[in-house]
Amino acid sequence: MVRPLEERFRTVRDLFPEFRVETRRGRLLVNESGTWQHNTILFQLLFQLVGPVAARGWEIWPNITVYLGQHADRYVPDLTVVPETPRMEEDHTVHGDSTLLLVSVVSASSFYDDYFVKPGDYSPNGVPFYLVIDPFRREVKLFSEPGGKEYGRETVAMGGEPLTLPDPWNLALDTGKLLYGDDGA
Questions:
Q1: For residue 75, what is the DSSP state?
Q2: Please, what are the domains in the chain?
Q3: Which parts of the sequence belong to the Putative restriction endonuclease domain (predicted)?
């Protein structure tokens, strides 16, 4: 007898806690941790987010599953920002509409999912902001204004250009530091 995907997901997640376990379109995906470049990008983003997040009483979670419905795919963003008391489905699963920002750093194997699949699942589930940092294209893309099957707004900044996270953030990200580790020069 084949076990339901949700049961297999939980089993694999429990067996491999050091890996990122997701479901996508009926498939279980077990992803290794990021490269040093991937982690440097996340460090640079954390450096820019930590002050505003702490000042508002929010939290940054690096390894949490996003709940998008009972039969929906399960994603584990590279970073998730949540309010002081987010709505949880389980201890390791936060509701998408109870997040403040989800972040994906594009890898060679995640391009299509990061740009096309995930936004189509996040928007109808009320994820307010989805940030895609793409070191290959040297761009940062912000999906905002969720509603229906797609986001109402997509803002792109090339490496070195500022990217503003709108209200409640009101924060300009330095994409040069994200993509180059410095001022973009």
A1: B
A2: 34-180 (3.90.1570.10)
A3: 17-168
Q: How far is CA 10 from the centre of its chain?
A: 20
CB burial of 134-167 (b: ≥16 within 10 Å; e: otherwise) equals: bbebbbbbbbbebeeeebeeeeebebbeebebee
Q: Which DSSP helix (H) or strand (E) runs through 5?
A: helix 5-15
Q: Which two tokens stand for residue 150?
A: 């797609």
Q: What is the DSSP letter of 152?
A: S
pLDDT in tens, 9-39: 666 566 656 565 666 666 656 655 667 788 8
The string of DSSP letters for 79-130 reads EEEE-SS--EEETTEEEGGG-SEEEEE--TTTHHIIIIIHHHHHGGGT--EE
